[in-house]
Amino acid sequence: MKALLVTNTYPPADVSGVGTLACELAHRLALGGHVVRVLTRRPPADDLHAEAVGGPKLLFPLLAALRFLAAPRTDWDLVQVHESDGALVAVALRLLRLAGLRAGRARLVATLQVSYREERLAVRAVRADGEVVSRPSGAERRFAILRAPLLAFLGRLTARLADAVVAPSAATAAELRRDYGVDAVEVIPNGVALHAAVQRHRPELPPVILYSGRLRSRKAVAVLVAAMPRVLAAVPATRLVIVGDGEQASAVAAAVRARNLTAHVELAGALPRAAAMARLAEADVFCLPSTYEGLPLAILEAMVAGLPVVATAVSGNPEAVEDGVTGLLVPPESATALADALVALLGDRRRREAMGEAGRRRAAERFAIDGVADRYLALVERLTAAAGSTRPSRGA
Predict the structure, then answer these.
(1) What is the pLDDT of residue 204?
(2) Per-residue confidence at 12, pLDDT binned at 50, 70, 90?
(3) Number of domains the chain contains
(4) What is the mean pLDDT of residues 190-196?
């Protein structure tokens, strides 16, 4: 099979769930003997599958479409676009199909991680037990007013033009059907590469809670900060490590200072992927206190690392975390419930280890990148067969 993947973000220049999924999927398909090309903005120099489109982030959809149109006779089997950034590639593919050109024969799969209608609504004040603990930054408000409606329009356009729409969770699929007006949405979860189990017998060290991800309003990290005094009252030596940067970085730092938590909270900032993954090995519990998600790659990576997960019961989180088995789910915007769940795990090493091992098994069974890639291949073969085309070849 010949596959073209289109993604604005791509590691290591851009650390995001979307880019990481595209990178892992491209490498898995290549290992399976398929011809793979990735159009992205800033790939690493040693990535043999990725082609640099360049330019600023906002112009990526146009530049990617122009690059796609520059090779109208390429015999692609699959064109997979990620998020609204692939909308103009979707339009270009439709034009090539109408013109009867070879590249237009490709099956278009749109992988949409979120509904941008919901993403816009998530830009709001966040509360912890009724108290406002964070407000959207100016950049976030501009996003909600200007960019989110455009991205929602482009997402809807992409979904309407695609031969298949893929969502990472059943919750996101329901949002896309409602917000983008598509009848059928395939659920294929995000995938992660599996690695060796991490040994974490470290009872003599202070327990560590880890958050890793972008610092934006919907991630609700301020609720986690608000929960820390209650956690420290029960487990005084606890440390919280916050990995990531973003629009709420200054507000989170201010909240840490306001609650006199600087001795207990490390603001690690944005880290290279390898360094961020290494922090998983140093933690005891992973925490994601979001108000809105798709299917967070951060949770899946924590599960692979053998960490129990405390997360909010929103969006696709319950489809990743099995409550009481691989972690604990709590209501959003409740610092009390979040703290109680964290204390319950921090005070019980055997329970943490059992949940971590169960999470690792669940990740291997449901979210391994090999299985995810196979599901995409099966989807493309079904689409090709339905179109009356030749079944995609397995080799180059």
Answers:
(1) 67
(2) confident
(3) 2
(4) 83
Same domain assignment for residues 372 and 354:
no
Rounded-to-integer distance, Cα 125 and Cα 99, Å: 49
pTM reported for the whole predicted model: 0.91
Q: Is the pLDDT of residue 396 over 60?
A: no
User: Based on the domain organization, do 219 and 340 belong to the same domain?
Assistant: yes
Note whether residue 197 is domain-resident: no
- Tell me the two tokens of residue 336: 């009390």
Phi then psi for 313, rounded to 5 degrees?
-85, 65
DSSP string, 216-280: -GGG-HHHHHHHHHHHHHHSTT-EEEEE--STTHHHHHHHHHHTT-TTTEEEEES--HHHHHHHH
- Regarding whether 155 and 266 lie in a shared domain, the answer is no
- Beta strand spans in 117-235 (E): 126-128, 131-134, 164-167, 186-187, 208-212
At residue 95 the predicted structure's pLDDT band, cuts being 50, 70 and 90, is very high
- Looking at the fold, whether 119 and 267 belong to one and the same domain comes out as no
142 is a domain residue:
yes
Examine residue 394 and state whether it is found in any structural domain, yes or no. Answer: no
Residue pair 111/81 in contact by the 8 Å Cβ criterion: yes
Question: Binning pLDDT at 50, 70 and 90, where does residue 392 land?
Answer: very low
Q: Within this chain, do residues 26 and 158 fall inside the same structural domain, yes or no?
A: yes
Q: Are residues 175 and 242 in the same domain?
A: no
Give the model's pLDDT for residue 11.
86
Q: What is the residue range of 349's domain?
A: 208-366
Give dist(CA 323, CA 341) in Å, integer.
11
The CATH code of the domain that includes 159 is 3.40.50.2000
Q: For 202-261, what is each residue's pLDDT tens digit? A: 556 899 999 999 999 999 999 999 999 999 999 999 999 999 999 999 999 999 999 999
- Rounded-to-integer distance, Cα 79 and Cα 89, Å: 9
Domain match, 180 and 138 both: yes
pLDDT at 67 over 90: yes
Do both 101 and 18 map to the same domain? yes
Torsion angle, alpha carbons of 138, 144, 147, 148, to 10: 150
pLDDT score of 277: 86
Reduced to 3 states, what is the DSSP secondary structure of residue 212? strand
DSSP 286-323: EEE--S--SS-HHHHHHHHTT--EEEES-TTHHHHS-B
* Cβ neighbour number for residue 304 with a 10 Å cutoff: 24
Over residues 340-349, the mean pLDDT reads: 96
